[in-house]
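S1.2 Input.
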Amino acid sequence: MRLSDFKYDLPAELIAQRPLRDRGASRLLAVDGPACGPGARRRDLAFADLPQLLRPGDLLIFNNTRVMRARLFGRKETGGRIEVLIERVLHPHQALAHVRSSKPPAPGRRVEIEGGERLLVLGRDGGLFRLRSEGSTFAALMSKRGHLPLPPYIRRPDDALDETRYQTVYARRIGAVAAPTAGLHFDETMLERLAGMGVGHAHVTLHVGAGTFQPIRAGDLDRHEMHAEWVEVNEDVCQQVRSARQRGGRIVAVGTTSVRSLETAAAGGELKPFRGDSRLFIRPGFRFRAVDAMITNFHLPESTLLMLVSAFAGHHVIMDAYRHAVASRYRFFSYGDAMFLIRNERDLEPVARARS
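S1.3 Output.
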Protein backbone atom coordinates (compact mmCIF):
# COMPACT_ATOMS: atom_id res chain seq x y z
CA MET A 1 0.00 0.00 0.00
CA ARG A 2 1.04 3.60 -0.53
CA LEU A 3 0.80 6.70 1.61
CA SER A 4 -2.02 8.10 -0.49
CA ASP A 5 -4.22 5.13 0.53
CA PHE A 6 -4.51 6.69 4.00
CA LYS A 7 -5.69 10.15 3.03
CA TYR A 8 -9.07 11.55 4.05
CA ASP A 9 -10.61 15.01 4.14
CA LEU A 10 -10.99 16.56 7.58
CA PRO A 11 -12.52 20.01 8.19
CA ALA A 12 -10.28 22.00 10.54
CA GLU A 13 -13.18 22.76 12.88
CA LEU A 14 -13.42 19.05 13.80
CA ILE A 15 -9.94 19.06 15.36
CA ALA A 16 -10.60 19.33 19.09
CA GLN A 17 -8.70 22.25 20.60
CA ARG A 18 -9.72 21.74 24.22
CA PRO A 19 -10.91 18.84 26.36
CA LEU A 20 -14.57 18.46 27.21
CA ARG A 21 -15.63 19.47 30.71
CA ASP A 22 -15.83 15.81 31.81
CA ARG A 23 -13.40 13.09 30.73
CA GLY A 24 -16.14 10.58 30.06
CA ALA A 25 -18.37 12.91 28.03
CA SER A 26 -16.85 11.94 24.68
CA ARG A 27 -18.63 10.05 21.93
CA LEU A 28 -17.66 6.50 21.01
CA LEU A 29 -17.88 5.02 17.51
CA ALA A 30 -18.03 1.24 17.83
CA VAL A 31 -17.08 -0.95 14.86
CA ASP A 32 -17.71 -4.39 16.26
CA GLY A 33 -19.41 -6.53 13.63
CA PRO A 34 -18.63 -10.22 13.07
CA ALA A 35 -14.87 -10.28 12.42
CA CYS A 36 -15.13 -6.69 11.11
CA GLY A 37 -15.75 -7.88 7.58
CA PRO A 38 -17.31 -5.81 4.77
CA GLY A 39 -20.65 -5.82 6.62
CA ALA A 40 -19.15 -4.56 9.87
CA ARG A 41 -21.65 -3.17 12.32
CA ARG A 42 -21.10 0.49 13.17
CA ARG A 43 -22.77 2.14 16.15
CA ASP A 44 -22.74 5.73 17.40
CA LEU A 45 -22.47 5.57 21.18
CA ALA A 46 -21.28 7.60 24.14
CA PHE A 47 -18.08 6.69 25.96
CA ALA A 48 -20.27 6.00 28.98
CA ASP A 49 -21.62 3.03 26.97
CA LEU A 50 -18.23 1.29 26.95
CA PRO A 51 -19.25 -1.33 29.56
CA GLN A 52 -21.83 -2.77 27.16
CA LEU A 53 -19.01 -3.52 24.69
CA LEU A 54 -16.95 -5.41 27.27
CA ARG A 55 -17.67 -8.57 29.23
CA PRO A 56 -16.48 -10.19 32.47
CA GLY A 57 -13.11 -11.80 32.01
CA ASP A 58 -11.82 -9.26 29.47
CA LEU A 59 -8.47 -7.64 30.25
CA LEU A 60 -7.83 -3.96 29.56
CA ILE A 61 -4.22 -2.98 28.89
CA PHE A 62 -3.37 0.62 29.82
CA ASN A 63 -0.19 2.59 29.07
CA ASN A 64 0.87 4.21 32.34
CA THR A 65 3.37 6.68 30.87
CA ARG A 66 3.26 10.26 32.15
CA VAL A 67 3.88 13.29 29.93
CA MET A 68 6.92 15.41 30.75
CA ARG A 69 6.79 19.19 30.76
CA ALA A 70 9.19 18.83 27.89
CA ARG A 71 8.84 22.10 25.96
CA LEU A 72 11.34 24.82 26.91
CA PHE A 73 11.70 28.31 25.46
CA GLY A 74 14.83 30.44 25.39
CA ARG A 75 17.39 32.21 23.24
CA LYS A 76 20.60 31.38 21.47
CA GLU A 77 23.84 33.21 22.22
CA THR A 78 23.12 35.35 19.17
CA GLY A 79 19.80 36.44 20.69
CA GLY A 80 17.54 34.46 18.37
CA ARG A 81 14.54 32.72 19.86
CA ILE A 82 14.66 28.98 20.28
CA GLU A 83 12.29 26.18 21.28
CA VAL A 84 13.61 22.96 22.82
CA LEU A 85 11.48 19.82 23.03
CA ILE A 86 13.08 17.16 25.23
CA GLU A 87 12.64 13.76 23.58
CA ARG A 88 14.49 11.62 26.08
CA VAL A 89 16.50 12.22 29.26
CA LEU A 90 19.68 10.13 28.98
CA HIS A 91 20.91 10.88 32.48
CA PRO A 92 20.24 13.74 34.94
CA HIS A 93 22.23 16.38 33.04
CA GLN A 94 22.04 15.11 29.46
CA ALA A 95 19.13 14.74 27.05
CA LEU A 96 18.17 14.30 23.41
CA ALA A 97 15.92 17.02 22.07
CA HIS A 98 14.28 18.56 19.04
CA VAL A 99 15.39 22.16 18.53
CA ARG A 100 13.47 24.77 16.55
CA SER A 101 15.12 28.05 15.61
CA SER A 102 15.86 30.15 12.54
CA LYS A 103 19.27 28.46 12.32
CA PRO A 104 20.24 25.28 14.20
CA PRO A 105 22.81 25.87 16.98
CA ALA A 106 26.21 24.37 16.27
CA PRO A 107 28.04 21.98 18.64
CA GLY A 108 29.78 23.93 21.38
CA ARG A 109 27.19 26.72 21.39
CA ARG A 110 24.96 27.45 24.37
CA VAL A 111 21.24 28.07 24.74
CA GLU A 112 19.80 30.12 27.58
CA ILE A 113 16.42 28.91 28.83
CA GLU A 114 13.88 31.25 30.40
CA GLY A 115 15.01 31.84 33.97
CA GLY A 116 18.71 31.86 33.12
CA GLU A 117 19.60 28.15 32.95
CA ARG A 118 22.04 27.26 30.17
CA LEU A 119 22.26 24.23 27.92
CA LEU A 120 25.38 23.22 26.00
CA VAL A 121 24.93 21.73 22.54
CA LEU A 122 27.15 18.62 22.45
CA GLY A 123 26.28 17.48 18.93
CA ARG A 124 23.69 15.79 16.75
CA ASP A 125 22.19 12.32 16.93
CA GLY A 126 20.28 11.96 13.69
CA GLY A 127 17.54 14.58 13.74
CA LEU A 128 17.97 15.19 17.47
CA PHE A 129 20.37 17.40 19.42
CA ARG A 130 22.37 16.08 22.35
CA LEU A 131 22.23 18.69 25.13
CA ARG A 132 23.92 19.03 28.53
CA SER A 133 22.47 21.12 31.32
CA GLU A 134 25.09 23.25 33.04
CA GLY A 135 22.96 23.84 36.13
CA SER A 136 19.84 22.01 37.24
CA THR A 137 19.04 18.46 36.23
CA PHE A 138 16.68 18.16 33.28
CA ALA A 139 13.97 16.86 35.61
CA ALA A 140 14.24 19.99 37.76
CA LEU A 141 14.51 22.28 34.74
CA MET A 142 11.36 20.86 33.16
CA SER A 143 9.52 21.05 36.46
CA LYS A 144 10.42 24.74 36.90
CA ARG A 145 10.39 26.05 33.33
CA GLY A 146 8.81 23.41 31.13
CA HIS A 147 5.47 23.47 29.31
CA LEU A 148 3.31 20.48 28.44
CA PRO A 149 4.04 19.74 24.76
CA LEU A 150 0.59 19.90 23.23
CA PRO A 151 0.45 18.44 19.70
CA PRO A 152 1.11 20.80 16.77
CA TYR A 153 -2.53 20.66 15.62
CA ILE A 154 -3.69 22.27 18.90
CA ARG A 155 -3.34 25.92 17.98
CA ARG A 156 -2.97 27.48 21.41
CA PRO A 157 -0.48 27.59 24.29
CA ASP A 158 -0.83 25.06 27.09
CA ASP A 159 -2.74 26.22 30.17
CA ALA A 160 -3.49 25.10 33.72
CA LEU A 161 -6.27 22.72 32.65
CA ASP A 162 -3.90 20.80 30.41
CA GLU A 163 -1.76 19.97 33.45
CA THR A 164 -4.40 17.45 34.49
CA ARG A 165 -6.41 16.78 31.35
CA TYR A 166 -3.43 15.97 29.09
CA GLN A 167 -2.53 13.19 31.54
CA THR A 168 -4.43 9.96 32.15
CA VAL A 169 -5.74 9.41 35.68
CA TYR A 170 -3.44 6.38 35.97
CA ALA A 171 -0.27 8.04 34.61
CA ARG A 172 2.67 7.00 36.77
CA ARG A 173 5.97 6.65 34.89
CA ILE A 174 7.21 9.97 33.52
CA GLY A 175 8.96 9.99 30.16
CA ALA A 176 6.51 10.76 27.33
CA VAL A 177 6.29 13.87 25.16
CA ALA A 178 2.72 13.09 24.09
CA ALA A 179 -0.19 11.56 25.97
CA PRO A 180 -1.58 8.08 25.21
CA THR A 181 -4.80 9.82 24.30
CA ALA A 182 -7.25 6.89 24.25
CA GLY A 183 -6.77 6.74 28.00
CA LEU A 184 -7.80 10.37 28.50
CA HIS A 185 -11.48 9.33 28.38
CA PHE A 186 -11.23 7.14 31.48
CA ASP A 187 -12.09 8.59 34.88
CA GLU A 188 -12.13 6.86 38.26
CA THR A 189 -15.87 6.22 38.01
CA MET A 190 -15.48 4.31 34.73
CA LEU A 191 -12.54 2.30 36.08
CA GLU A 192 -14.60 1.32 39.12
CA ARG A 193 -17.60 0.35 36.94
CA LEU A 194 -15.46 -1.92 34.79
CA ALA A 195 -13.74 -3.52 37.78
CA GLY A 196 -17.14 -4.12 39.36
CA MET A 197 -18.35 -6.06 36.32
CA GLY A 198 -15.28 -8.31 36.33
CA VAL A 199 -13.11 -6.61 33.68
CA GLY A 200 -9.45 -6.86 34.62
CA HIS A 201 -6.67 -4.39 33.94
CA ALA A 202 -2.90 -4.36 33.51
CA HIS A 203 -0.33 -1.67 32.78
CA VAL A 204 2.47 -1.49 30.24
CA THR A 205 4.76 1.47 29.60
CA LEU A 206 5.50 3.11 26.27
CA HIS A 207 7.06 6.58 26.44
CA VAL A 208 5.47 8.28 23.44
CA GLY A 209 7.98 10.27 21.38
CA ALA A 210 7.54 13.39 19.28
CA GLY A 211 8.07 11.22 16.22
CA THR A 212 4.46 10.12 16.53
CA PHE A 213 3.53 13.48 14.93
CA GLN A 214 6.20 13.43 12.24
CA PRO A 215 4.78 13.10 8.72
CA ILE A 216 5.72 10.13 6.55
CA ARG A 217 7.85 11.54 3.74
CA ALA A 218 8.11 8.43 1.57
CA GLY A 219 5.16 7.55 -0.67
CA ASP A 220 6.41 3.95 -0.65
CA LEU A 221 5.80 2.67 2.89
CA ASP A 222 8.66 0.17 2.59
CA ARG A 223 11.03 3.13 2.79
CA HIS A 224 9.65 4.59 5.99
CA GLU A 225 11.81 4.36 9.14
CA MET A 226 9.85 4.30 12.39
CA HIS A 227 11.00 6.37 15.35
CA ALA A 228 12.16 4.47 18.44
CA GLU A 229 10.04 4.50 21.59
CA TRP A 230 10.86 2.98 24.98
CA VAL A 231 8.64 0.01 25.89
CA GLU A 232 8.34 -2.14 28.99
CA VAL A 233 6.08 -5.18 29.32
CA ASN A 234 6.82 -7.15 32.49
CA GLU A 235 6.21 -10.76 33.43
CA ASP A 236 3.18 -9.89 35.55
CA VAL A 237 1.44 -8.44 32.47
CA CYS A 238 2.31 -11.54 30.44
CA GLN A 239 0.83 -13.75 33.15
CA GLN A 240 -2.35 -11.65 33.31
CA VAL A 241 -2.73 -11.99 29.54
CA ARG A 242 -2.28 -15.76 29.72
CA SER A 243 -4.82 -16.01 32.54
CA ALA A 244 -7.36 -13.91 30.63
CA ARG A 245 -7.02 -16.12 27.58
CA GLN A 246 -7.46 -19.27 29.68
CA ARG A 247 -10.75 -17.98 31.08
CA GLY A 248 -11.99 -16.98 27.61
CA GLY A 249 -11.47 -13.24 28.01
CA ARG A 250 -10.30 -10.83 25.33
CA ILE A 251 -7.21 -8.64 25.45
CA VAL A 252 -8.42 -5.06 24.92
CA ALA A 253 -5.66 -2.50 24.35
CA VAL A 254 -6.39 1.07 25.38
CA GLY A 255 -4.67 3.03 22.64
CA THR A 256 -2.25 2.36 19.83
CA THR A 257 0.66 2.60 22.29
CA SER A 258 -0.66 -0.36 24.26
CA VAL A 259 -1.05 -2.27 20.99
CA ARG A 260 2.54 -1.50 19.98
CA SER A 261 3.79 -2.52 23.42
CA LEU A 262 2.07 -5.91 23.43
CA GLU A 263 2.80 -6.70 19.79
CA THR A 264 6.47 -5.77 20.29
CA ALA A 265 6.63 -8.16 23.23
CA ALA A 266 4.91 -10.87 21.14
CA ALA A 267 6.97 -10.37 17.98
CA GLY A 268 8.69 -13.74 18.44
CA GLY A 269 5.34 -15.55 18.32
CA GLU A 270 4.66 -15.69 22.06
CA LEU A 271 4.12 -12.86 24.53
CA LYS A 272 7.24 -12.49 26.66
CA PRO A 273 8.63 -9.75 28.91
CA PHE A 274 10.26 -6.95 26.92
CA ARG A 275 12.25 -3.91 27.95
CA GLY A 276 13.90 -1.63 25.40
CA ASP A 277 13.32 0.43 22.27
CA SER A 278 10.69 -0.57 19.73
CA ARG A 279 10.57 0.45 16.07
CA LEU A 280 7.62 -1.77 15.26
CA PHE A 281 5.79 -0.53 12.14
CA ILE A 282 2.25 -1.94 12.08
CA ARG A 283 0.40 -1.53 8.79
CA PRO A 284 -2.11 -3.55 6.75
CA GLY A 285 -0.97 -7.15 6.47
CA PHE A 286 0.57 -7.22 9.94
CA ARG A 287 -0.17 -10.38 11.92
CA PHE A 288 -1.48 -9.51 15.39
CA ARG A 289 -0.54 -11.99 18.09
CA ALA A 290 -1.60 -10.36 21.36
CA VAL A 291 -4.55 -7.97 20.97
CA ASP A 292 -8.21 -8.82 20.28
CA ALA A 293 -9.90 -5.42 20.56
CA MET A 294 -8.83 -1.84 21.07
CA ILE A 295 -10.02 1.58 22.14
CA THR A 296 -8.47 4.44 20.22
CA ASN A 297 -8.94 8.05 19.20
CA PHE A 298 -9.17 9.28 15.60
CA HIS A 299 -5.78 9.77 13.93
CA LEU A 300 -4.19 12.13 11.44
CA PRO A 301 -4.47 11.44 7.69
CA GLU A 302 -1.49 9.54 6.26
CA SER A 303 -0.12 8.78 9.74
CA THR A 304 1.45 5.57 11.05
CA LEU A 305 -1.31 5.43 13.69
CA LEU A 306 -4.01 5.43 11.02
CA MET A 307 -2.10 2.60 9.34
CA LEU A 308 -2.05 0.67 12.61
CA VAL A 309 -5.82 0.84 13.13
CA SER A 310 -6.32 0.01 9.43
CA ALA A 311 -4.22 -3.10 9.92
CA PHE A 312 -6.27 -3.97 12.99
CA ALA A 313 -9.83 -3.51 11.75
CA GLY A 314 -9.34 -3.51 7.97
CA HIS A 315 -8.40 -0.66 5.66
CA HIS A 316 -11.79 -0.29 3.98
CA VAL A 317 -13.60 -0.62 7.31
CA ILE A 318 -11.53 2.14 8.88
CA MET A 319 -11.66 4.55 5.96
CA ASP A 320 -15.43 4.11 5.76
CA ALA A 321 -15.71 4.67 9.52
CA TYR A 322 -13.65 7.86 9.26
CA ARG A 323 -15.87 9.21 6.51
CA HIS A 324 -18.86 8.49 8.74
CA ALA A 325 -17.15 10.21 11.69
CA VAL A 326 -16.50 13.34 9.62
CA ALA A 327 -20.08 13.42 8.36
CA SER A 328 -21.37 12.88 11.92
CA ARG A 329 -19.19 15.68 13.32
CA TYR A 330 -17.08 13.61 15.69
CA ARG A 331 -14.21 15.45 17.38
CA PHE A 332 -10.78 14.39 16.16
CA PHE A 333 -7.29 13.76 17.56
CA SER A 334 -5.90 14.09 21.10
CA TYR A 335 -8.81 15.81 22.84
CA GLY A 336 -11.36 14.25 20.50
CA ASP A 337 -13.72 11.30 20.56
CA ALA A 338 -12.98 7.58 20.65
CA MET A 339 -13.47 4.35 18.67
CA PHE A 340 -13.92 0.75 19.77
CA LEU A 341 -12.52 -1.79 17.30
CA ILE A 342 -12.53 -5.58 17.01
CA ARG A 343 -9.59 -7.20 15.25
CA ASN A 344 -10.25 -8.03 11.62
CA GLU A 345 -9.86 -11.72 10.79
CA ARG A 346 -10.66 -11.42 7.09
CA ASP A 347 -8.91 -10.33 3.93
CA LEU A 348 -5.45 -10.25 5.47
CA GLU A 349 -2.86 -8.85 3.08
CA PRO A 350 0.77 -10.04 2.90
CA VAL A 351 2.50 -9.62 6.25
CA ALA A 352 4.04 -6.17 6.70
CA ARG A 353 7.58 -5.41 7.72
CA ALA A 354 7.91 -5.38 11.51
CA ARG A 355 11.17 -4.39 13.16
CA SER A 356 11.55 -4.18 16.89
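S1.4 Remarks. The two ends are 21 Å apart (CA to CA).
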